[in-house]
Every structure is written in C-alpha cells, then in structure tokens.
Design a protein that fits this description.
- There is one protein chain.
- This protein is of the alpha/beta class.
- The chain is built from 15 helices and 13 strands.
- The chain has two domains: 196 residues, Rossmann fold, CATH 3.40.50.2000; 173 residues, 3-Layer(aba) Sandwich (Rossmann fold).
- The chain has a seven-stranded parallel beta sheet, sandwiched between helices.
- Strand 6, helix 5 and strand 7 form a beta-alpha-beta unit.
- The chain is globular, with a radius of gyration of 21 Å.
Amino acid sequence: MKPMRIAFVITGLSMGGAENQVITLADRLASLGNVVIVISMTGEQLVHSQHKDVRVESLYMARDPISFLRAYLRARALLRAFSPDVVHSHMVHANLFARLLRMTTPMGRLICTAHNSNEGGAVRMLAYRLTDPLADISTNVSDEAVQAFIRRGAVRSGRMITMYNGIDCARFRFSPEDRERLRGELGAGGDTQVLLAVGRFTEQKDYGNLLRAFARVCAACTDCVLWIVGTGDARTSLESTARTLGVAGRVRFLGLRHDVPSLMSAADIYVLSSAWEGMPLVIGEAMACERVVVATDAGGIREWLGDAGFVVPVRDSEALARGLHAALTLSSEEKRARGTAARRRVACWFSLDAAVARWLQVYRGPIFRPDRLPGKPVMDTNLEQGNE
C-alpha cells in the first residue's frame, strides 16, 4: 500500500499521556514507511521521537496576537512544503489551530482528536462547535468522552467517534530485574507494598484525594508506601498536605522520570485518583505491566479496566481508601491472576498495533460515513490465545 504523508499537530510535547501517544504513533507510522512530521505549538519538549525519520518542528507560540500570527504563518509554510495527505491534530488548542489553518492551507484530510471528557468551559465548547465543519471528523479516547462532548454541544451526534489509545506491549511489560533493581534503589524492602501514581500535579489528577485516602490506608496497613511521579506547581502544596496528614515519611515524590515501565514493575498497585479523564493511557500501561489497578470512575476508566481492577467514585477519599485496602490485602496468587488478566485485556483490545491499524483505516477510509469508521477495536484471536 502506498505510504502516506502524515502531519501531527499538537499543543505541546510536555510529559503526558496525549503527548506520549502522539510520539508513539508517529514512530510506529514512520516504521511502516509513512512520512511523518510532528508540529508542536509550544517550544517545550520532554517527549522525544525514537525514530530517526520523524521530523519534529516547534512553533514557539506564546499567548499574544503577534506570536499567534507568526506561529500560524510558520505552520502554514511547513504544511504547504510537506503537502500532507492527512493532518491529525491533538488536544484542544491544536484542534482549533489546525481548523483555522485549513482555511488557508491545503489538507487532504483533517482529523481532530480530543483526549479528555473535559477540555474546557463553554467558550471552548462553542469554539469546537463553530469550527466543526472545518474538520473531516473528530475523535475522542472513550465512549464516555464522546458523549460528554455531544452533551455539551461541542459536536453533533455522528461527528465524533471513539478511537482508543494504543499500548506498546513490548515496552510496557513486567520485568523482575527492573523490579528488584528499582526497589533496592528506592528503599522498598521485600515485604513493602508500593503504590504508584503517575501524572502531572494538576487539579484534574486530584492528588489531594489520593493523599487523604493513603493516610486512611496507612492506619491499617503498615507495610505500604506511595510513590508519585510527576511535576507541577502544586508539588510544594502536596508535600505540605502529606506532612499535615502525617504520611510524609511514606510518600516519595519522584519528579519527572523516563523509566515509567520499570517503575510499574517495581510497584504492586497502580492508583489513579483523577476527578475527570478521557481514557488515561497510564492505566493501560499499568495493566500491560500486570499491575493491580485501583482507579476513580473518571472518563473511560471502566472501558479500560473491565473486570481487571477496582473502580471507585471520584472525589471520595473514603471510597478510594477502601479500594486501595482491598487491593493491598489480595493474596499474592490473586494479585498475579488479576495482573495476568489485565495484560491479556490490553494485548487483546488495546495494543498499539491495533490502534495504528484503526488510524490508518480512518486516514484512508470513507470519512463522511461514521457508521463505516472502525471505532471499536476487534479482538485479535491470536493474542487471546496468548501469542503476544
């Protein structure tokens, strides 16, 4: 099949699930012989391509009209020179930016992907609605997120479909060697159970909820610690909260890390405490690493987990504490069984290869017939039989 010229436009390349997914998709598409460029609206880049042929360009856009105009003209020049078959934008600012670009820039096809059930207030939702005709189709990362956009008037029914993220199961897999090494480096003894959370320190991730739940758990479980990976301005406040709750000695703020798959292996329980989500990639990554997952009922969490983890209400530290306690008190055999089931679910339904195949269908397929778009993944029967 003839290679495609694919241009990704994204708000930025800081550390986050959407950013990692875009770069991972770009790398895999390039490895299949497609020509790929990634255009980042901002200059910050913490996520880097691993494929030598993926071209990354930054617009260095700031929040002022002159900077916007310069970025717009540069993006237009880049796209005209690249001549893409498909422009695929990601996240709210890039989606709106790409739609405005289409008014003056030839694009064979424009796909706009949201990564959350909540991408802003009424003004942003109105902007989505007004610019919707400029996109061929919009997608979101879970059924719940799609319905949230429709309810809020951002898109009409049929103009946004579910396209699940894909997990690189070769990269995210349990490693006994990494587990032993990192637990030694971070001071987690053999009997210590490690809870792991990964994500930026934002209101969305609701780490205050997690710390309050962890404080409750500590009263009953004396052999557990909490590791939090992430950055953000709220770190100082969260450290103060941990001290106030009396758990500072059992919480480690690990900052920005580039060894998340290894940290997943070192942990026993993965916990997500978010107030809202789309379809958080990190849940699938933890499942691929065979971790027991405890998560709030935010966005498409249930679509990820099925019966493979514990789901509790959002913004409810007591319920989150009960879920964590239930996970911590599972026997070793029960943990292994849940972990095995979690990886098999990801490998069967949410693998990166399956996601790339679905995206290529959308890039090439009958875009104005949502009923014919791939949307939901089809189970790979070879994977279900264990042939990963």
